[in-house]
Each structure stands twice: as C-alpha cells, then as structure tokens.
Design goal:
DNA-binding, 2 domains, Arc Repressor Mutant, subunit A, homodimer, Rossmann fold, five-stranded parallel beta sheet, alpha/beta, 222 residues
Chain lengths: 222, 222
DNA sequence: AGGTGTGAAGGATTTCACAGCC
DNA sequence: GGCTGTGAAATCCTTCACACCT
C-alpha cells in the first residue's frame, strides 16, 4: 500500500541523525537550517541531505532552507515518533539493566512497559527504573504483549538463549526485535530484526584502524 | 601500502558475521562449509559470500567449500584478532559498567586495561570486573595510553561530555573511538569513529516495522 | 545572492552465470 | 555432482549541476 518502497535503507538510517541535529539546532533557537549545515553535522554532502528528505516529501523553502520546527514535526511523523511506542525488554543482566536506565528511549517516545527474565532468582525482583514493576517470567509474555499492544522488543539475553526468546516473542505477536545477543537470529517473514553486537562493533573499528584509517568516517551508523 | 584499498565497507562489515558463524560451525565439529551455508546463516546470497572472501584472498576449495579451521585462522588474521588489542573505557555509568562485564570483548581478544570517569565520587572506586583496577581520573589518560600502547577506546559518557572526551582521547594518541553517546562527534583525520546510538537503533527498527515489514531483514547490525 | 528539488551522470555494490576444478 | 572464483550485467546509491523559487 505504501509507495514508500524505493527508499534506500541508508537514507532511512540518516533520518534519525538529521532529526537529532535538528533538535539541537532547535535548542539553540535557530529557526531554519540549510541542507549544507545539516550535511556537515552528519558527515554527508548537501545533495545527499536534500535527496534523503525528498524521498519523504517537499519540506524545504527555496532561498530559506528548512524551518526547524516544521521539519522536526514532519520527521517525527515519518519516524512514528509522534506517538508512544511500547517496548518490552527481555534479559535483566548487566546490559539489560543498563538499557532499563537509559533515558534516551523515553526521550524518543518509547515506553518500556515490562522486563522479562528466565532466571527464577530474578523473577519478581523490583525494577528500580520502572517504579511499581517487577521482573516477570516469560510465561507472562503473550498476555503482556496483547494487553499493551507491544510491537517492539529488545533482546539482551545470553547468546544461547537468544533464538528461543526470539521465537517466543514472535509467537506472542511482537513485530520488531532489537537483538544485542552475539548471535545471528533467524526470524520468520513479517518479523523485522536488527542486531547490534558490541564485540563485532569493536572488531570492525579495530580493523578500520589497522587499515590505515585514511579519513575519519562515521562508519556503521547512528 | 596496502592494496586493500578497494574493499567495500559492507563487505568488511560482513566479515565479522562470517567469522561468528564459522566459530559455531567449528564448535559443531564440521570440517567444511559452503558459501551457500554461510550465506543463509548471515542472510546474504552465496555469490556475495564468495565475493566478500575473494577480496582478501583465495580460501576456498572447489567441490569442497571452505575448510573451517583454515578460514577461521585467515579471517582472524585479517581482522587482527590473532593478537591482543588493548582498549580503554571512558564512562563508568550504567552502560559503562555493563560494557565492563561484557565477556564478548575478551573472547575476541580485546583487553580492557583501564576505566576512566570524570565524576570525582567515582574516581578510585574498585572495578569488580577488572580485579586490582580502580576507576581513574581522565588526567591519567595520556600516561595509560602511552604505557599500554592503547589504540582503541569506548566512549560511554553522557552526550554533553562526549565531544570533550573524544578530543582528549585523540590528543592522548588513541586511534579508534567507539562512541555510545547519543551525539554526533567530530574527529580529526587519522581518527576512526564508529557510533552506536541505542535509541536511534530502536527508532530505525520501529520505522521499518511501521513500513509494513515485507521481509525480515538483518538490517543495520553488525 | 542564497537555497531547494531533481533529472542525469557517475560510482559502488550486488547478482548473474559460467568456466574450471575436485 | 558439488563448489569456488570471477568477469559482465544489473541494481542501488551518491554526486553533479542546474532550473527554479524567494
């Protein structure tokens, strides 16, 4: 149904970066930005910025640039950040706890509604970051997902448990998985998966440094 | 000096993924893998796998596939994982502590040699994950970097402190920065930067899910 | 002047398809 | 039969350059 088919994935990745810079620009009370300024902040060319934005509509004003407030509103709309999206977290280990306390999610209008773990010694423990909540058993997964209409989940469990958790999440009706386990997961069609492997990330960096590191590059993303 | 110039960045990104699957294959006592199997595990085409590997040499055996042990050794060599690489961490907050206790780094032959923080109430505290070590002041940065020949650093500080930390790291002689602060950093040439923004990552995922999520894609990852 | 939106050109990466080897 | 390595084709993405607007 969406004619949003032909949008390059890299363009989508840059969208969040543009938005982040726009927000700091707004905080400085600048009313407009040019594609030039945006491009330098994110590390791409100005033509790239205009092309990227053009995939989603015409937001600019010739001779002026982009009105910051307007563009922020449009981009939030496009990214879905204008409405609360509920998220659950599976895995209450070190990384899981760090993610719970991460304020960035809330700022982007994500609402962490529950935390799950398989470890019997953890189930029932209070979650300081989510007042009134407690760590839940995975048995509660289907119910919580249905009750809160949760579409997104973060996986922060050990590698050997990750695939099973992913399967349970998909079965419970979650549509998007953000996986931090160092493991390649298989998902069935209809489930979107994004993986971040911290060690792999560092390995990439080390390789690039070894190469000779000609120019500083914002390499992988975000 | 390296004719390793023309290697596509995406190919390099996939290298770590191939290696990870090879290691699990090895654990299963399989002696060889085909590009077909590797490709399915990582979510690319088999031609892609062969092209990627071919950038670095000829490792395959026609009719057989790739010998697992051999390929692992070569890939570790290529990625530099055959020798210990020393890393420091700046920022001992929630995320920093999670990173300290993350075993994946050690497994990939990274050695975390010191943890720094600017918070006077944290400096001097012991680091349970690094026996005998304590959280250090950033004043010690140049000395530690020089003494241990540290080339890589992980930044896990709040956004508003990140640019200053990056500058100090570069000045101290660190060559590669892995940044977790939700902030676009500027670095001078010769410094390689890779950024991971957890909130942006989730935002990307939410967007893809909203699109309609036609096919499961290992999207941005690692 | 300053700035966007966009067709067209250029480059880069991926896929195809097949020769050659085990 | 199975499988790799690789030129050639196809596709995808980025940059150029300029018409047009303010």
């Amino acid at each position: 149904m969406a004619k949003s088919e032909g949008i390059p994935a890299p363009a989508v990745r840059r969208l969040s970066l543009y938005l982040r810079h726009l927000e700091t620009t707004q905080a400085r009370n600048h009313a407009t930005v040019s594609s030039r300024e945006l491009s330098r902040a994110v590390g791409v060319t100005d033509a790239q910025v205009r092309k990227d934005l053009a995939y989603f509509g015409q937001f600019g004003h010739p001779g002026i640039g982009y009105r910051v407030d307007e563009l922020i509103a449009r981009m939030r709309q496009i990214l879905g950040a204008d409405q609360v999206r509920r998220v659950i977290l599976v895995g209450a280990g070190n990384l899981g706890r760090a993610l719970m306390s991460y304020r960035g999610f809330r700022k982007k209008n994500f609402d962490l509604v529950a935390v799950f773990d398989n470890d019997a010694t953890k189930i029932g423990l209070p979650t300081p970051e989510l007042p009134g909540e407690r760590i839940r058993s995975l048995d509660d997964l289907p119910r919580i997902v249905a009750e809160h209409d949760v579409r997104l989940a973060v996986i922060a469990v050990p590698a050997q448990a990750a695939q099973a958790v992913a399967d349970q999440l998909a079965a419970a009706g979650v549509r998007g998985l953000l996986n931090f386990a160092p493991m390649i997961l298989q998902t069935r069609p209809g489930i979107t998966l994004s993986s971040v492997d911290l060690a792999v990330q560092l390995e990439q960096l080390a390789f690039q440094v070894n190469l000779g590191a000609e120019g500083a590059k914002i390499s992988v993303d975000s």
